[in-house]
Amino acid sequence: MPMTATHRVRAAANWLNLTTPLGLAVALTGRARLRRGPEGIIVAEGYRLRYPLAGAFTVGNVVATASDIATLEARVPGTWGHEGRHAWQYAVGGVWFFPTYALASGWSWLRTGNPALRNPLERHAGLVAGGYVHPVTGQPTGRVRARKFSRRRAP
């Protein structure tokens, strides 16, 4: 797929806010193989570090995965679009994406026991596409607290 003007804007923003250079450093630290992907994304396949625990993750315009994107997309259709939306979030938020994501994950974990289900950044990127919700049943795939917070009625 050719790079559109909007993809070029995203790529430039992520270079200027230094998240893509950081993503490249993370990928190289994880000894991933780098290649150009569609939409101006840099694909880092064969990432070897055990953190973060995810099928794929994005830093700037770099999408890293322990396997390869084709296998991941076959297993969880829509993953590429999900990670592309995260790249847009970096373009808008820059390095502020990191503390924002941490706070949103903490809020989600407190509410559901899962760091993604109520995380607005993951919800915007697409929970099903990110593999967080089963595409047929719509049920969460991660661990969710059985007891939810609720208000008690006064006697």
TrEMBL record:
Q: Which residues cross the membrane?
A: 51-70, 90-110
Keywords assigned by UniProt, alphabetized: Membrane, Transmembrane, Transmembrane helix
Q: Output this protein's name.
A: DUF4157 domain-containing protein
Q: Which organism is it from?
A: Propioniciclava soli
